Every structure is written in structure tokens, then in C-alpha cells.
């Protein structure tokens, strides 16, 4: 059967093809045994390709009434002010249509898109109906997806790997690997990405990245797609390809809503329906072709040879005065009027029987089990770790170089009774290394992950807890390896006692300090930007150093500041490593004949610095508690952050 894309004015909904369907995930893969030619275009990505995924459920019709959005402005210590962005807008986005939300910069396009997709929930009032019933957000999220303006892809993974990870997370476990491969191949072929399968996402062109972003969300066959400025950054040919592809997807019965800035006349024609915003109010809603009639009806016709898309933006920007804008808002009744829709009787359905999924808010948001999410995220994490060789080698290299430097600087300080203070300084330097290296690495790298997390989490790829657990686990092997390497080199070169027990205590204390510092970095990185985090991380670590007993010993700490030693994880780390080296009844230290050895007796040294040598188990418990609390803290901060952004 040949399905040819119709003109924008016709309304071909989902075709009834002779199909056999394979149920997968939320939807169905529907295989036709005939070729569909979607687009009559020479440069269209889909010409002659077979695209067999049709939505399995009834199409989704979105209607919104009296939508108002009020933003709260003002920082933590500033007076809060309210700013109304959307002013009671109304509208209807029927299924099977490619819809553009247009308007000048700041008109409220992204705000409206965010509200309709369910991404923005705070400060919103009004009503959104899905197939005639009030939208159930959980159910709606299960059948929709949001594609952000910036391409939030995993740059180190190839196109095929990105797709397989998406399929493994977004398709039910009952779908076999073979079926997933078929789905992936089909999507990539349709989007013209088959030849880039083995290219890493970072090596794709802007248009290919955009198509990959769409491909990833198509994996579970959503009925509704929201795209924020899908053509930004693309050349005119790529823009056309991208919009034509979206039109194909719309024609199959999906509701596709995009925000777009100022399309050329050619691009504008591709859309079925336009929704124009001017300062948070609806200026026009209806068929693309009818917009010119609308201008005539309001008494402000579009000048001859003028692109209607340009004209409407000029109008909305008030280039021809505010009164024209007011007249148009009134004429389209702020989006209530359906007069300018093409074939309103056909597309503006009122009978929505048989669309069960729009009501189904039962079960988890994610398609697969928690265990599967963790497994897939760990797999992705290890691939990234392996590919990000610069960072991985840098981490190993920094540990080796720092260990060699400290080893050379404090050569044999561990056995020499005249160098006990030097050795103490070394122990503190080691803890500084274990604090700053992992903390700064996390503060610098985590915020870049955050944008991908926000997109994937909103699109229901995985739960936040599983993502967080994977982040925690993935880094463990490399952190342990680096710490072991560092400890072994420093310990041996500086002549610390070669005793298995002492070495183990030393390594365990060091390792726990690394884990705590990493978790602290995660709390900071989850909340603050890279710039603020880079400033705050070290600043907040300085009091920890002060209260650890370095510089001012714990004995000399003023009583009113003693509490500080309990909140400083470095204090427990220092106690652990000092106990490992000078505790366990260490014998008298060697003292060179020509030297004065004030701390020849380790016991005296421990007394002077007020460190109890028998506290190792308490130190471990305290550090594990810090680790645990900070990890939970970072999860809470992340959850808050994801929630507050909505
Ligand atoms: N959370 C918020 N707090 C304060 N102001 C906001 C908030 N969200 C949106 N705004 C303001 O609302 C207006 C509309 O923003 P929006 O991002 O929706 O515009 P837009 O039409 O998508 O613009 P552009 O095309 O430039 O992306 C802007 O002036 C923006 O600063």
C-alpha cells in the first residue's frame, strides 16, 4: 500500500494498513508488508523508507482552557515578586497534526509547551483536557515525550549504543533483543541515521544530533511529542528534513507540538496548525493556510509578497502597534475560537471512546524494573568511563604523580624518630589529596550530567534512585584502584611500618575519606553551578581542616568550638591514619645519632596531638555515617532540584 503525505489542508489520520502488530512496551510495533512512501520530496529524510511503527492507541487530542502562568522572581535574600507570563490562554491541539507554537522571543512559547507537556507544574492554573477528560499527569506522561532545544545526548556513546540504551530502558523486558534491533533499525532508517550507527554522538552534525534526539524518544512510540525549537541551529535543508519527518510522525496519528521562532514561508507551510502567542496571549489559532484569511477578517491584511509567518511575528512584536494585537486577540478569543481550523468537523472530535491509555495512571512511570534500570545505567556508565580515557588516565596519573612527589619529599619519614612532625604533615597532605581530588572532580563533572538527567528522568527512562545508585556504584572501582595505588606508593616510599594490619587501617581510612569527599562534592554539584560549586567546595572544606586537629590540636581547641571536631570528617580520617601509623603499641622509633628526637616515643606524640590511638572502629563508623548521610543528602538535593525546576 502506498501512503503519500497529503497537503497540509487535508486531514489523513492514522492509516488502516494491512498490519501485523508486535506489542512492545507502551505501544506496538506495527509491521506492514508493503512500502510506505511518506514524502514527495527529493531531500526528505523519509523518501522511500519503510517506517512501520504506528501508535497502538487512539490518537490524543489536547485542549486547554484559561491557562495562566505566574512566575515568582527574586533570589533567596531578595523580595519575591510575581510576574504573569501567560494570561488565560485557550487552545485545541488535535491528534494527527503538526502544530507550531509561534511568537516573538519572550512571548511565552516554551512556557506554554512546558505546561502542556506537564513539565511545569508550579505557578500554573487553568485546565488541560486530554481526549475530553481532565489530564491525568502520570497517564499523560506515559504516552508523551519532551524533546529539549539543546541536544542532551551521551556524547561518548555511538548512535547505536545510545539507541540500545534507550530501548533497554524504555521498552518492556518482554520485548526480545531481536525485536529491539528491528525497532532501532527501522527508526534509524526512517530518520536517515543508519549510516551513522557507529559514530559517536559527539561527532554528529547539528541536524543528525537533532534527529537522534527524536529517534531516542521514538523508541517507545509516544502518542504525543513536544519539541522545543527543533529547528534551532539547523540549516534550511536540515530544518525542512526535520519538520517533514515530524509531519510523517504526525500523519501516523501522533500529536506533535513544536515551538518555532520565525520559519521561512516554505517551512511554515509544512505545519498543519499554528498557535501564535503575543505577550502571553493567543493572537491566532487555526490552520496554517487560514492565517491569511484571518488577517483579512481582522482588517489588517498581510502585504503582498510578504511571508505570513514574518508578518504575524511583526504583528505580535507590536511593530504595527498594540491596537492590532488587541484586535486579533479579541477576534480569536484568546484561543477559544475554532473558526480558523481546517476541516474542524473532521479533526475536532468530541467522541473519544476507546482511548484507554490516557486514563491509565496505574503502575510505575518507568517501563522496566528497577533492577533493569540499574543494570542498563551501569552498563552505560562503564562504557563512558572506558571511553573518557583522558579523565580516567588523568585520575590515575594524578594519583601516581602526587604519590611520587610526596614519597620523594618525605622519603623514609615514617621510621625516623626525628621526622615525626614531618610525617604528621605528610599524613595531613595525604588527606588533603584524598579530599580535594575527588571532590573537585565531582563538582566539575556532575553539573554537565544534570541536564541529561533532567531530560531522561522526565521522559521516564529511569527513576532518580536508580540513576543515583548507578552513579554511586560506577565510580567505586576506579576510586578504589586510584586510592590503593596512591596509598601503596606513598606508604612504601615514606617508610611507614610494613605491617599488613597498619596498612589496611591506613588504606581503609584513606578510602573512606575519598568516599566522603566525593559525596560532599555531589551535594555541592547537585545544587550549585560549576562556578559556584568550584568556589563553595574548597571554602567549605577549610573549616573541616581547622577542626580536624591540624594546626590547632584538638586539645587546644576552645571549648565553644569543640563541636566542630565532630562535624569534621577529616578529624576522623586523621585519627584513623595517625592511629594506623603510631597506634597499635608502636615501638620506640629509630633516632639518628646526631639528631634530637623529641617524639622518639609514639605514645608521647599521640598525647601531644590529643589523638587516641584505639579509636579506629569509631573512626570507621563515623566516616561511614558521614558517607551515608552525605549520599542521602545529595539524593534529597537532586530530588528537590528536579522538583523546583518544574
Ligand atoms: N520561571 C520563570 N521566572 C521568571 N520569568 C520567567 C520564568 N519562566 C519564563 N519567564 C519569562 O517569561 C517570558 C516568556 O518566556 P519563554 O521562555 O516562554 O519565552 P519564549 O517565547 O519561549 O522565548 P524564546 O523564543 O526567546 O525562547 C520571558 O520573559 C521569560 O523571562
Automatic annotation (TrEMBL):
Its main location: membrane. The chain crosses the membrane at residues 393-412, 424-446, 466-493, 505-529, 535-554, 566-584, 620-638. It is a multi-pass membrane protein. GO terms for cellular component: plasma membrane. It is found in: Membrane. It holds the Pfam family ABC2_membrane. The keyword Nucleotide-binding applies. Keywords: ATP-binding, Membrane, Nucleotide-binding, Transmembrane, Transmembrane helix, Transport. GO terms for molecular function: ABC-type transporter activity; ATP binding; ATP hydrolysis activity. It comes from the Eukaryota. SUPFAM superfamilies: P-loop containing nucleoside triphosphate hydrolases. The keyword Transmembrane helix applies. Residues 62-304 form the ABC transporter domain. Belongs to the ABC transporter superfamily. ABCG family. Eye pigment precursor importer (TC 3.A.1.204) subfamily. This is ABC transporter domain-containing protein. It comes from Rhynchophorus ferrugineus.
